[in-house]
Amino acid sequence: MDPNAQKQSIVTINQISKRFVKSLDLAGRIAQRFGADIREEIVYAVDKVSLEIQDGEVVGLVGESGCGKSTLGRVVAGVHEPSDGKVLFRGQEIDSLTGQDAQAAALKIQMIFQDPMSSLNPRMRVQDIIGEAPVVHGVVDSKDITNYVEEIMLRVGLDPSYARRYPHQFSGGQRQRIGIARALAVQPDFLVCDESVAALDVSIQAQVLNLFMRLREELNLTYLFISHDLGVVEHLSDRVVIMYLGRVVEIAPTSELFADPNHPYTQALLAEVPRLETRQRKFAPVKGEIPSPIDPPSGCHFHPRCPQASARCREEIPVLREIAQKRFSACHLNS
Amino acid sequence: MSFSDSPTLEVKDLKTYFFTKGGIARAVDGVSFSVGRGKVLGLVGESGSGKTVTGFSILGLVDEPGRIVSGEILYRGENLVSASMGRMRELRGLNISMIFQDPMMTLNPVLRIDTQMIEAIQAHEKISKDDARQRARDVLGQVGIASPDERLRAYPHQFSGGMRQRVAIAIALLNKPDLIVADEPTTALDVTIQGQILYEVQKLCSQTGTALIWITHDLSVVAGLADDICVMYAGRIVEQGSVNSVLDNPRHPYTHGLISSVPSRNRRGVPLAQIPGMAPSLLKLPKGCSFGPRCPQVTADCGIIPNISMLDKGRQLRCHNPLDALVSPKLKD
Asked: Which helix (H) or strand (E) holds A328?
């Protein structure tokens, strides 16, 4: 079925955890010594997540705010160091690489951010934003850079005559294209797109989504596409990963996930997606909100909101298990 | 439940212009619509289409250099455009209230929730502080906030984003208004929280007959919530009518383009139909129909601004070359 099944995996995420620790200041340490009930605050942003991404695949990473999806994306892109676990690129552990190899691997994974205005340097011209990295890393010779930038700008649908402009002279959709051009300039194989179309108007969002799909065909790119918008993810992805409070709750091929969600959280999430086809619907209240990751619920993180929770869900953490071919779910109801 | 036929709010040929150094920006240019008791009107458009300024005009919140140039805003027959500042103060918060996109903008960060809620009640009614607190508590519970007694004593920063928006909605509901103008209230929220809030407002409209104007760029939320829909582009309503008729059979090329750009399960993996170009600046609008330069149906006629044509069942359209029923996409599964 899946044409990517036999291909090798491009990125392997192996038991990645990322903890953010807010350590005690001096006053806090003294108070603690005198017996005050305070301790370091630890946020388990990502908790033992494993995922294999095949070459040429688009993986959608979905979850509500605070579920750790952006943190996971940043760990993969090398922005954050993982607290535990390894990220493998084409079978090689990124941490163990040194010198040129490490740099080459880093270049192959690029990231596109949500807000292009805060991720583009407002004082740099577009030609420098796009052209700086490929020259520094020796992807192109500095005397060929003008042509190279022109080529990349054409590829993402920007007019090369705007190369000497600054980011503020562009509209939101064009700025996002600049961000994409900058990522493409170092000829990556793998793009982490963190809410890359969330800030755009519907008609502009369609343009950028079409660009992502065209680039994937032309350059044989692999995407980790992070979004809270299930409609966008359904449209673009081959496979969807659902996260809740730092843990993966379900992984499935897109059409199967949307046709038949397994995990109660996925079911609740899908039921809430507004669709053009549903008219004058009766909205039903969903129980509770996503709890704080500083003090997550015991056992299955979703149990306080789950309509089918049992005593076991409060005590035992469900493991992610294969429930059908290529489908994984972390729920006690499956056993 | 049925309510009387006279609309709660009627907007007639409203024009709100901004007189800037760069020229006159016609943010709202001849907009007319009405909302009846217990009805939900979806006002849809992209950024810069004038949907928020329309909402602000109703509440009398348009600031310099903006001004309502002409038109009427009739709230139960009373023209709000010519109403005095004092009268608007009476109406705002009591009969008409607004929910903004960013609850941090509505809530005062240095005052506790109870202070802000009791103030909103006592501003319109002679009522003891204890009774006012009691009502604030009840309304907080109504919008789904757990242990409202404790939460009343909290400050806005102690709430999560979704809870804060619910507090802002609770404040809008305090005096049981006849009309609520909601400006993108769920845009920044997660889908499950959005579902909770949509549930609350839907309940309110059907139970108390509150009329609701829901301003958003998200067609799919409007599809599930609204009775009627107005699609705005560059300050004008280009198409309006009942949700089913407009979404199933869009006649304006812009509405059609918007609907086709929404990712849908029927067209997975297929490139989305895109509207070429981008929305024009209000200071440099193209001659004639503002959508002309982006329109696939454009003809020489489009050099003149199209008039509103009335179709059947209250459908209205502003287009020289409307699409016919057969061209439109079929959305139903």
From this structure: strand A327-329
* Chain B residues lying within 8 Å of A205, measured CB to CB: 261
Average pLDDT over residues B297-320: 85
Mean per-residue pLDDT of chain A:
86
Mean pLDDT of chain B: 86
Do A201 and B196 lie within an 8 Å CB cutoff? Answer: no
Residue of B nearest to A210 (CA): B271
Cα separation, A178 vs A185, in Å, equals 10
Residue B40 structural domain: 1-86+179-192+211-267+274-327
What are A66-103's pLDDT values in tens digits? 788 889 999 998 888 899 998 888 888 887 878 788 88
Cβ contact A328:A250 at 8 Å? yes
Query: Residue B267: its pLDDT value, please?
Result: 67
Burial A71-89 (b: 16+ CB within 10 A, else e): bbbbbbbbebebbebebbb
Q: For residue B256, give the CATH number of its domain.
A: 3.40.50.300
Average pLDDT over residues B19-25: 89
**Which residues on A lie below 8 Å from B193 (Cβ)?**
64, 289
pLDDT at A198 over 90: no
The whole-angstrom separation of Cα A179 and Cα A167 is: 10
Query: Helix, strand, coil proportions of chain A in percent (round to 5)?
Result: 40, 25, 40
Q: Compute the average pLDDT of residues A26-37.
A: 84
**Which residue in the set B160, B192, B199 is minimally distant from A269, CB to CB?**
B192
Per residue, the 3-state secondary structure of B132-181, as one string, reads HHHHHHHHHHHCCCCCHHHHCCCCHHHCCHHHHHHHHHHHHHCCCCCEEE
Is residue B53 within 8 A of residue B63, CB to CB? The reply is: no
Residues of A with CB under 8 A from a CB of B: 64-65, 171, 173, 201-207, 209-210, 213-214, 228, 230-232, 234-236, 254-255, 258, 268-269, 271-286, 289-290
B268 and A234 within 8 Å at the Cβ level: the answer is yes
How confident is the model over A111-121, as a mean pLDDT?
86
Which ipTM value was assigned to this complex?
0.78
CA distance A330 to chain B (A): 20
Residue B44 scores a pLDDT above 50 = yes
Cα–Cα distance for residue pair B165/B175, rounded to 1 Å: 17
Examine residue B222 and state whether it is found in any structural domain, yes or no. yes
Residues 6+ apart with CB under 8 A from A205: A197, A232, B261
Tokens 């042509």, located at residue? A147
- Assigned token pair, A202: 């519907």
Q: Write down the pLDDT at residue B330.
A: 47
Looking at the domain assignment, is residue B298 inside a domain? Answer: yes
**Residue B315 domain-assigned?**
yes
Of A173, A231, A290, the CB nearest to B262: A231
Residues sharing a CB contact under 8 Å with residue B171, sequence separation 6 or more, in sequence order: B97, B106, B107, B116, B117, B120
DSSP state of A162: G
Is the pLDDT at A323 greater than 60, yes or no? yes
Number of domains in chain B: 1
* Residue B170 belongs to some domain of the structure: no
Residues of B with Cβ-Cβ distance to A236 under 8 angstroms: 263, 269
Residue whose token pair is 């059979």: B249
Residue A266 in this model has a pLDDT that exceeds 60: yes
B137, B156, B162 from B109: Cα distances, Å: 19, 6, 16
User: Is residue B151 over pLDDT 70?
Assistant: yes
CA distance A288 to B146: 9
Instruction: Please check the confidence at residue B25 and state whether its pLDDT lies above 70.
Output: yes
Q: What is the CA radius of gyration of chain B?
A: 21
| B93/chain A closest Cα distance in angstroms | 26
Looking at residue B325, its pLDDT comes to 61
